[in-house]
């Protein structure tokens, strides 16, 4: 995520000059054990049971849809679409017995050995 600095400013003890574009590496924020806790690399949907902001040390450090006045306009639509999509997938397939649960970090978190699904004729 990026923001252009419109005037010379300081963030903590870092001086930033007008015109510089500052990038936030969101993946690092979402996986840093210092911020997210020691299980930051584990796939654990349960940690969201009490809402997004309770998942990490600083509520604003969890920002898959950005943050502030330019936050993603489609956040709620996309979240709803994901819920519908997951429900549709789960209702039509079961995981193959050969499936090995092994999420790893590439550019995003992906299943290391893929996800094999059993397809049955409806
Ligand atoms: C998984 C799905 C999506 C993700 C992860 C995502 C993520 C993001 C992020 C990180 C930003 C930048 C926010 C910022 O700079 O603070 C953004 C902006 C935006 N997104 Fe999404 N987005 C998703 C889906 C959608 C959908 C479905 C729509 C529209 C239907 C949408 C519309 C927008 C728009 C219009 C902006 C620009 C907002 C602005 O600059 O004021 N996004 N999105």
TrEMBL record:
Keyword Transport on this protein? no
Q: Where is the signal peptide?
A: none
Matching entries from InterPro entries are given as: Cyt_P450, Cyt_P450_CS, Cyt_P450_E_grp-I, Cyt_P450_sf, Cytochrome_P450_Monooxygen
Q: Where does heme bind?
A: 72
Localization terms from the record? Membrane
Q: List cellular component terms (GO).
A: membrane
Cofactors needed by this protein, per the record, are: heme
Organism's domain of life? Eukaryota
GO molecular function annotations of the record: heme binding; iron ion binding; monooxygenase activity; oxidoreductase activity, acting on paired donors, with incorporation or reduction of molecular oxygen
Output the SUPFAM superfamilies linked to this UniProt entry: Cytochrome P450 (SSF48264)
Just give the chief location class: membrane
Check the record and name the Pfam families matching this protein: p450
Alphabetized, the UniProt keywords read: Heme, Iron, Membrane, Metal-binding, Monooxygenase, Oxidoreductase, Transmembrane, Transmembrane helix
Q: Which residues cross the membrane?
A: none
Family of this protein: Belongs to the cytochrome P450 family.
Name of the protein this chain belongs to: OLC1v1001602C1
Q: Which organism encodes this protein?
A: Oldenlandia corymbosa var. corymbosa
């Amino acid at each position: 995520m990026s923001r252009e600095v419109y005037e010379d400013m300081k963030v903590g003890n870092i001086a930033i000059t007008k015109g510089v574009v500052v990038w936030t590496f969101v993946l690092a924020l979402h996986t840093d054990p210092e911020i997210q806790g020691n299980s930051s690399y584990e796939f654990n949907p349960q940690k969201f049971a009490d809402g997004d902001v309770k998942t990490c040390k600083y509520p604003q450090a969890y920002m898959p849809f950005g943050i502030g006045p330019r936050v993603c306009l489609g956040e709620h639509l996309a979240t709803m679409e994901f819920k519908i999509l997951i429900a549709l997938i789960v209702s039509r397939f079961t995981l193959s017995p050969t499936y090995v649960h092994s999420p790893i970090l590439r550019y995003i978190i992906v299943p290391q050995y893929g996800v094999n699904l059993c397809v049955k004729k409806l």
